[in-house]
Amino acid sequence: MLKDIISPEFYNVLKEGSKKILENENVRLLVHNDGDGASSGIILCNALKRRGIEFDLSFIKSLDSDGFRRRVQESPDIFTVIADAGSDQAQFIPEFDNIVILDHHFYKKSEFKGLNINARDYGVDGTREACGATMSFLMALAIDEKNSDLLPFMIAGLIADKQDIGGFKGLNATIVEHYGKSLVEKHSLNLEGENIGDALTFSIDPFIYNLSGKPENVKAALDNIGLDPSTPLNSITDPDSKKLFEFLALRLLQQGVSSESIKYLEADMIYFRELGFSSKELSTIIDGNSKIGENGIPAGYFLGEKSLQEAMINNWKIYKSKLIEYTYRVFKEIFEEENVRYFYAPEQEMTGAISGILTLYVLKQDKPLVGINVGDNDTKISSRAARPLLNRGLNLSIVMKEAASQVGGSGGGHDIAAGAIIPRGKEKQFIEIVNNIIGGQLR
After folding, report:
1. What's the CA dihedral at 20, 21, 26, 31 to 10 degrees?
2. CA 325, 328, 332, 334 torsion-angle sign
3. Contact 383, 369 (CB under 8 A)
């Protein structure tokens, strides 16, 4: 039961939130426009559908004061649940009392009349131990314990948020242990796809330089180590799996990646038989569709519209192909400052994913990386860092918030990954401020 795995205070506020939700015949769901947010949406949609509550699912792109407030004001009289965002943005909508927020990010407390439920307020590390999908799954359980079968989508969300690196931790681990007793885990290569060849060609996490996105190189490399590219991933033998791991580990070492990135070559993979996907496949399918603006496709599919499967899988491959192409392009155009690297991203929704790949698998990890996407009116920022920098004092949430505020924008997020929105034309000034703040943190 839910009350057995969380504190009484946490349990009581979730039950309070569930009571508010269940009092309504129609609920609006606003979730962050990424893999974690989309997974949160799928969980909440299913929980509401099962109770006969009508719902409307929408996605939040803009987290700045004006953009966020406009999104909420589109339907001010409809009871709203906001997931994977909102705690810090509550300051922009203080008068709304018909809102429940489910979040895990750092935030500044404000005079908000709604119910703001954030994992951090109950002793949970929102960077490594709980994501938006975690919070949404807890709310689904507070609504009805039978919603425990929605656990695969919580796992998809935490993988999208990189909270599976090194294994599930804290609250995430407790939930999976408690509600996932029937799940079968297999420690295997962290790859996805029908066969070895496709898995490496479309691999973005791990990103293998000069193999990812290069089918001819993949075939030549596999031939060289005596592996058949057409071998199905789910039937690869243990000796061949070991051979492939050693080969990929060597390639990553040659790229100069950290030990953390090498660990990500293997994972405790879960296969969800009832869904037909592994845990990693489910996560990247949901995230990939979100990144190319097709958030509703997996949501519809996992609500029962099985005719959407082909479109959903095709979008997944389109996303990975675009991301690989952009990563190679951006890598040639990285700018260096004393304490930070930065690049200009070709597409807003890909900025964070590009930053993540380059940080984990391609660039030296001695500095954080900032991605910049210049729009018509404002500029979107996405930053990433390697974990060792956090031990030296880096906190990108603070960096993004302080630097953005100094140029008339807003920002925040996690210590290891954060974002901002700033006025167009302020990019160089923003980077200078970021460089100075990071220098002070690391010293």
Report:
1. 130
2. positive
3. yes
Where is average pLDDT lowest: 91-105, 265-279, 310-324, 401-415? 265-279
Rounded to an integer, what distance in angstroms lies between the CA atom of residue 355 and that of residue 420?
A: 14
CATH number assigned to the domain covering 334-442: 3.10.310.40
Give the C-alpha separation, 11 to 151, whole Å. Answer: 18
How far is residue 357's CA from residue 355's CA, in Å, rounded to a whole number? 6
Is pLDDT at 178 greater than 90 in this prediction? yes
Q: What are the domain boundaries of the chain?
A: 2-151, 186-328, 334-442
The two three-digit tokens of residue 28, written as one number: 């609006």
Say what the pLDDT of residue 216 is.
Answer: 96
Q: What is the bridge-based pairing of β-strands 99-103 and 115-118?
A: parallel
State whether the Cα torsion 435-436-441-442 is positive or negative.
positive
Q: What percent of the chain shows pLDDT beyond 90?
A: 75
Q: What strands, in cross-sheet order, belong to the sheet with 26-32?
A: 54-60, 26-32, 79-83, 99-103, 115-118
Structure tokens at 94: 């203080």
Q: At what angle do helices 151-160 and 132-143 cross, to 10 degrees?
A: 160
| Per-residue model confidence (pLDDT) at position 428 | 96
338-382 pLDDT, tens per residue? 999 999 999 888 898 899 999 989 999 899 999 999 988 899 999
Measured CA to CA, the distance from residue 153 to residue 138 in angstroms comes to 12
Instruction: Reply yes or no on domain 2-151 having CATH 3.90.1640.30.
Output: yes
Q: Is the pLDDT of residue 33 over 90?
A: no
What DSSP letter does each residue of 40-100 carry, written as one string?
Answer: HHHHHHHHHHHTT-EEEEEEE---SHHHHHHHHHTSTTSEEEEESS-TTGGGGSTT--SEE
